[in-house]
Prior knowledge:
Strand order of the largest sheet: 1-2
Shape: globular
Radius of gyration: 24 Å
Strand content: under 5%
Amino acid sequence: MTGVIARRLAHSLPMIFGVIVLSFFLIKAAPGDFLDVMTSDMQLADPAMIAKLRVTYGLDQPALVQLGRYVYAVLHFDLGFSYRQGVPVIDAVLERVPATLLLVLSGIAIAVLTGTIAGVYAAMRENRAGDRIVSTLGLFLYAAPSFWLGLMLVVLFAVKLGWLPAGDMESYTQTGGAWARAWDILRHLILPAISLGLFHCAVYLRVTRASMLEVAHLDFVRTAHAKGQTPRGVVWTHMLRNALLPVVTLAGMQFGSVLGGSVVIEAVFGWPGIGSLLYDGVLNRDYPMVLGILILSAVVVVLANLLTDLIYTRLDPRMKLS
């Protein structure tokens, strides 16, 4: 198992290298660089000083030389220095990663849980009123932009009802121990996680419904019914385990899109994750920060897909990781 995992990670290296090269040249194609913003902020207009800074940061070198130096630095776990944050990129990103992972994993959990339950409910009531209502609601959630869902939830639960906070990750005035802080973070997490999860739950609904209907006509399900097992027992002990296989595959493939969607949700709710850091980096042309976040995001997506394959082999013993 360890050897297979090591080979899978080794096979991912060309993809990560491709992400670095593509991101580097896309950023190079954008107008201006971080030195323009930095000299503007410092109100520095001396051409000699600007030329000296350009040499200091290596911007006077050809693009291929800059790329080679950057790849060499990445291989030594150095993602560069963020002039905007005033710290190494790796330190700034690692400080924000826990907040983003908390939001993304909560959003995926809500999407998978609600989508799977709704898909099973719709499949068991195929072409009846319950099926049509759930399917229409799922289509509505998929069509609605996640930022719009977030704003509507804020208006209802934060502004009108006052039940939940409207933004940030925790209260600045919060006092108490670890449990009080955990409860405070959970209250702040509910609205952004639901906004992120509801947008993606419609996909799981459709996949689960289709998979359940396909499994329902297989021989082993008919055999279970013939043995006198209750319909609910057949669903939970025979059909759902097989129907979950495409859901697990989809969860791994969607991790990247949920991670990208968290950028919008973090902006709406002021969530202090890497999404807001990326947004600030793009606005201020803090390209080392942007590159570092893109590379780490690619690594996280690779690890998520590997974890998905491991879960898949546990659900279906016929599948082998190799």
